[in-house]
Amino acid sequence: MLPMKLLKKLLKWSKITIISLLLVLAIAYLVIYNLSQQRIQKTYSYTDAAISIPSDSLSIAKGEHLYKIRSCQDCHGEKGEGSLFMDDKMLIQLTAPNLTKGNGEIAAFKTTDWLRVLRHGVDKNGRSLFMMPSHEINTLTNEDLANLIAYCKQLAPVANLQEKLHSIGPIGRLLMVINQVTVLPAEKIDHRAIHTEKLKEKTGVAYGQYLSSGCQGCHRPDMKGGGPLAPGFPPVPNITGDGNVGNWNEQSFIATIRNGKTPEGKELNNNYMPWKSIGHFTDEELKSIFMYLQQIREKH
Ligand code: HEC
Ligand code: HEC
Asked: Domain Cytochrome c spans what residues (predicted)?
């Protein structure tokens, strides 16, 4: 048995250690809270040239195709009905809103509101939205963006998700502060960019690069891949000519995206690599993406 005196001393020390630990944690959280809060509260201003939204069926059909290849349905649903993005108090509590006129806010949306969200990733007060990938959609030409908006505006009203969740928890803030996840799209956007009216060539390397902006969030802007996007996820492969894909041909690339299985026989898990959404690209579009990826080569 320890002598009484030592035991008392030990207890006292443990108490001091625990209290100091709690204090350090509290201070760390305060710092994280303040750093993240400054970024959340930041407002963005911009001026946009007006664009006109078509209403003919051909433009709407093009908009529907864009809705699918840009994976809007993954978060907002096939019919635009909206979905629960995540409900985790530690990470984030967030809904991907109902985009149909069943949502009062959307019903009141003007073209400038659609531009605000899709081009700038900000809410009515000019603050960044959470997790909405506006920084990847932002590069759309005026023509494509107008068609996408035309499609969204005519979605049949669905009464779903009237309650909006929008708050971020302590772990979510930490991930934001260490820049592990893009929580605030507005930070990644050049708000003064001048947008191309329409693309002249809808084939080839430049078109492939244009179409592949949605791959960047995972495969990184240089398409060379990197570490897992979250714990438990697989690493993201290099899909340039220098990677494994460099050994494939156009047909095997298209087949991989359509069937979720690589020429080497590897099954791609749709939860990590969303091949089902990407499979909405036409063959012609996939050919351009493949052309773009193949010509990124450093090794010879
Ligand atoms: C990764 C999931 C995800 C994808 C993909 C996505 N969104 Fe969103 N979107 C969200 C979330 C989450 C919000 C709400 C953000 C918030 O509350 O800060 C949102 C907000 C919006 C809003 C604002 C709605 C409102 O009530 O203010 C519009 C409009 C919108 N998205 C349209 C689209 C369109 C069109 C596409 C496809 C081009 C798309 N989104 C793709 C997650 C996504
Ligand atoms: C949400 C993240 C995400 C997005 C978006 C995404 N990918 Fe992937 N992709 C992955 C991950 C993760 C893997 C590896 C999957 C595995 O190991 O099972 C992968 C694998 C691949 C592979 C197989 C590579 C190999 O060597 O086996 C190809 C090809 C590919 N992606 C192409 C694309 C293209 C093209 C786009 C855009 C049109 C895209 N991906 C968008 C995450 C993503």
From this structure: 58-156, 203-297
